[in-house]
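Consider the tokenized backbone below.
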């Protein structure tokens, strides 16, 4: 049977899911009044404040949760996402993500964020190392291969991107996003016919995707120029 604290937490989460942020905060704060030494309510306040874009207050809420529950991996992860994506404080973000995966060695999202942030700061070997962990932990999920491929694409390692995209397609042959990024990757390395072939697979199903049409048109123009030489 739920106690009063759990009821407030449950109600707050329902309001958060529905976008009723003020009501969510009211419920979480009521929970804190009942159980001030439990980390969960502070964590949920952090999630809510993040949604309202009150990032500095969200940071304080996540830190409070961690001060109560030192092994709160999700709270470290959420802190890291704010430092990385909002404030671009990369060292702070890396420390948070490292702590998250140290506390939970199977925290896939933590390794993925580390891979992305190392890609951003051009620490490519560290990026690869973390993406490998992501793939190992969630090999059967094609979305993971897309995330890794996007990171490789962003740093200009198109061959690696193509390799990861082909793995995604092996798992899900209808993965439209994979074919689009394959088309872009082949275009970048000058394999224009391969780019066209992959983009045609997209346009056969979704003929109005502009990025696919644009890259295919550019690849066709490149092929024509090559044929004239």
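A designed sequence for it:
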């Amino acid at each position: 049977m739920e106690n009063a604290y759990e009821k407030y937490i449950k109600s707050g989460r329902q309001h958060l899911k529905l976008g009723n942020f003020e009501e969510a905060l009211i419920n979480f704060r009521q929970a804190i009044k009942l159980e001030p030494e439990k980390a969960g309510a502070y964590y949920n306040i952090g999630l809510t404040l993040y949604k309202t874009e009150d990032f500095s207050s969200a940071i304080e809420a996540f830190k409070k949760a961690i001060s109560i529950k030192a092994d709160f991996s999700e709270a470290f992860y959420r802190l890291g996402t704010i430092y990385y994506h909002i404030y671009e404080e990369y060292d702070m973000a890396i420390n948070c993500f490292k702590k998250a995966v140290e506390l939970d060695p199977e925290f896939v999202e933590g390794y993925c964020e580390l891979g992305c942030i190392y890609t951003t700061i051009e620490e490519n070997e560290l990026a690869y190392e973390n993406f490998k962990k992501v793939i190992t932990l969630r090999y059967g999920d094609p979305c993971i291969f897309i995330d890794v491929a996007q990171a490789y694409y962003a740093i200009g390692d198109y061959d690696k991107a193509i390799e990861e995209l082909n793995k995604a397609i092996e798992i899900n042959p209808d993965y439209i996003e994979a074919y689009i990024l394959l088309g872009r990757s082949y275009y970048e390395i000058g394999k224009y016919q391969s780019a066209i072939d992959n983009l045609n697979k997209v346009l056969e199903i979704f003929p109005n995707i502009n990025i696919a049409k644009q890259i295919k048109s550019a690849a066709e123009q490149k092929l024509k120029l090559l044929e004239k030489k």
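The CA atoms of residues 62 and 78 lie 7 Å apart.
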